[in-house]
Automatic annotation (TrEMBL):
Active site residues per record: K211
Keywords of this entry: NAD, Oxidoreductase
Name of the protein in its database record: Glycerol-3-phosphate dehydrogenase [NAD(+)]
Residues annotated for NAD(+) binding in this entry: G15, S16, G17, N18, W19, G20, F46, F103, A159, R275, K304, Q306
Domain Glycerol-3-phosphate dehydrogenase NAD-dependent N-terminal: 11-178
Reaction(s) the record says it catalyses: sn-glycerol 3-phosphate + NAD(+) = dihydroxyacetone phosphate + NADH + H(+)
GO MF: glycerol-3-phosphate dehydrogenase (NAD+) activity; NAD binding; protein homodimerization activity
GO biological process: carbohydrate metabolic process; glycerol-3-phosphate catabolic process
Pfam families in UniProt: NAD_Gly3P_dh_C, NAD_Gly3P_dh_N
EC number, as in UniProt: 1.1.1.8
Organism: Triticum aestivum
Family in the record: Belongs to the NAD-dependent glycerol-3-phosphate dehydrogenase family.
Residues annotated for substrate binding in this entry: K126, R275, N276
Sequence ranges assigned to domain Glycerol-3-phosphate dehydrogenase NAD-dependent C-terminal in this UniProt record: 200-348
Amino acid sequence: MENGHAGKHRVAVIGSGNWGSVASRLLASNTAKLPSFHDEVRMWVFEETLPTGEKLSESINQAHENCKYLPGIKLGTNVIADPDLESAVKDADMLVFVTPHQFVEGICKKLVGKLRPGVEAISLIKGMEVKMEGPCMISKLITNTLGINCCVLMGANIANEIAVEKFSEATIGYREDKEAANRWAKLFTTPYFLVAIVEDIEGVELCGTLKNVVAIAAGLVDGLDMGNNTKAAIMRIGLREMRAFSKLLFPSVRDNTFFESCGVADLITTCLGGRNRRVAEAFARNGGKRSFDELEAEMLHGQKLQGVSTAREVYEVLTYHGWQELFPLLSTVHEICIGQLPPTSIVEYRLAEGQS
């Protein structure tokens, strides 16, 4: 697919938080170098008024820096912040979705009928929507609402490390359209950011989604000072439950996907660093007396925690199918998050019989 305007692709990024800002910076450095792309990367900003009284989008365009979500990092003069969603995407034929997962549906509804023909999308978003008929992955939500092809990019990508160009890898998951996946890989690949492509969109996306639940478990273990053996056990059990849950939902999911960056590597980095781990540690240190909402507001300054809401969504699916006993770790995390069980329960369950 080539688009109508002189064969050059235009990129817009929907979202401007921590990862959205880093992704925009990385993409803009590539669009400036690659002849098949327009230099400018439009970044849609959910407008906020900063403590100085200045608007966030204006601040980004003047300083070329997101002082709220990525302070101290220059984004590049070709990243243009735009607080108007329709205006940000109107000329783009490559859309990068990178907002908290709970906002995607509303954003997509606003974009219906507003996009150029032949637009391609990619989602960097970790999470799922649970509908009456079952779980709906974010890429599917984008495809269904907007009628466009949507790949996913997931990986061991703690944003602040990529912002300072420390070496990192990622995985692009696609369904059938390998050419689109290759175009996205070209757009994202840099000497410090290596991208592999895998024809298993559900597997890649579920890895990115479910690892945040396991990271909550890892954070609880840290907050209870249980040490590295326990944390390794939690990560192993978590990875096994991630794989089993993914394959029950989507039998097409491939085992190999769990050995890509989006799988074991993302699980490791999120359980070692990452905001889900950090807030869960604080939750356990407070003996579960302070809620995740309260800790999120205090510790993350406007960033969103994904693990707690994903744990709830996963629990809804488990309950609906009667699978809680098959997934003791995923179930227990949710029950701890809502205060049904104490943080210490994270290591008190018995493995389900016959699990290998």
